[in-house]
Amino acid sequence: MTYIAKPQLRHPSLEKNRVGYTRRDYEGKISTLCAGCGHDSISAAIIQACWELDIEPHRVAKLSGIGCSSKTPDYFLGASHGFNTVHGRMPSVLTGANLANRDLLYLGVSGDGDSASIGLGQFAHAMRRGVRMAYIVENNGVYGLTKGQFSATADSGSKSKKGVTNSDSPVDLVAMALQLGATYVARSFSGSKEQLVPLIKGAMTHGGAAFIDVISPCVAFNNHPGSTKSYDYIREHNESVSRIDFISKRDEITAQAPPGQVVDVRQHDGTLLRLRTRHADYDPTDRAAAMAFMQAHQARGEVVTGLLYVDPLATDLHTALNTTARPLNALEAPSLCPGAAVLAKINHSLR
Ligand SMILES: Cc1ncc(C[n+]2csc(CCOP(=O)(O)OP(=O)(O)O)c2C)c(N)n1
Ligand code: SF4
Ligand SMILES: [Mg+2]
Question: Which of 290, 325, 348, 349 lies 20 to 30 Å (CA to CA) from residue 154?
């Protein structure tokens, strides 16, 4: 048996959201990950975010690669569409699905091995093409599933459980996402649900490529002194740029924002990201400044978390390709294949 189904029994008076679902309706099977694994906390944050967003589960497509992290879509959104791809290939399969049906909300779940090692090229092209999705990397600095080898995001100088020092430079997926043109870029920590839930909500309502790198400690292979991805290390070195509140377009904005410390970012779909900044001069809409800020703090050994960059008016691959507003999978045969006469006309126009 590779999974454990959850009992269907539930309390009849569980709170429902606006579309009539309880939190339990956003759960999946019982997790088989190690007790204390950061990935389970991220699954809980995804469940909370989707419930609060009033998303109907059948409107979500969750895709992943291979790894403990990529197993997690089995543990949330059990009534959503799902595809567990080959190692590192989630972004291209998701891109294809998105092009065929633009009406779904795409959630890509991956690991640091899956996205920064074997899937690095796939990650890069999904970001630069602006595929509309929430792309979450559950980053523990190791290949958890294959028993703790250093991954490409392990920091230079960090130590393995057996005391070996990593000499390679790390791949920083946040810096890459910023450089490659992602329009929503964040870093968070699995132990910080208060920060992670609104970040996921913002990503799922974003109009382009949204990327969240979530430091997610592997308690079995990378939670010891000398690791820079352990619970203790991240708690001690976490430097949050802001506190984020997610306000849906239906919610009334009651709290008056104190001037100077609050940046309101309204996204295309009307949702509002309210950022209570901890650094008065931090501008989350300035890509180059975000990069410089992050690198300066990283050099001091700090792990910068929060919403680092957002382009509220972002567009996606469909806009770039000028595709039809109707999902391709809903078009009838004559529209998809208009016949020899149309092809001859196109060929003629190219002569
Ligand atoms: C093509 C291919 N190469 C290698 C593997 C072996 N493999 C399975 S999971 C994994 C790494 C997973 O690491 P990560 O994405 O960080 O996930 P984690 O388990 O740490 O959450 C590797 C190398 C594989 N399954 N397929
Ligand atoms: S091996 Fe590590 S990543 Fe995998 S389930 Fe256990 S704690 Fe999580
Ligand atoms: Mg990993």
Answer: 290
Report how far ligand 3's centroid is from the alpha carbon of 109 (Å): 12
Strands (E), the chain: 60-64, 81-84, 105-111, 133-139, 142-143, 149-150, 184-189, 209-215, 238-240, 242-247, 262-266, 272-277, 303-310
Residues with CB under 6 A from ligand 1: 66-69, 87, 111-114, 118, 138, 140, 142-146, 151
- Atom 5, ligand 2: residue with shortest CA distance: 33
Instruction: Provide CB contacts within 8 A for 122, sequence distance 6+.
Output: 88, 89, 90, 91, 92, 115
Give the C-alpha separation, 26 to 302, whole Å.
34
Is residue 201 classed as helix, strand or coil in its secondary structure?
Answer: helix
Name the closest-CA residue to atom 9, ligand 1.
67
71 C-alpha to ligand 3 centroid (Å) = 12
List pocket residues of ligand 2, CB cut-off 6 Å.
Answer: 33-34, 37, 39, 68, 140, 144-145, 218-221
Amino acid (1-letter code) at residue 286: D
- Ligand 3 centroid–CA 140 distance in Å is 5
Ligand nearest to the CA of 33: 2
Residue carrying structure tokens 């709170």 = 15
CA 13 to each of CA 22, 52, 88, 251: distance values in angstroms, whole numbers, following the listed order: 9, 17, 42, 24
Say which residue the tokens 């997926």 belong to: 173
Which tokens hold the place of 290?
């975000």
For residues 215 and 188, the answer to whether their CB atoms sit within 8 Å is: yes
| pLDDT score of 1 | 45
Per-residue pLDDT tens digits for 244-259:
999 998 776 665 556 5
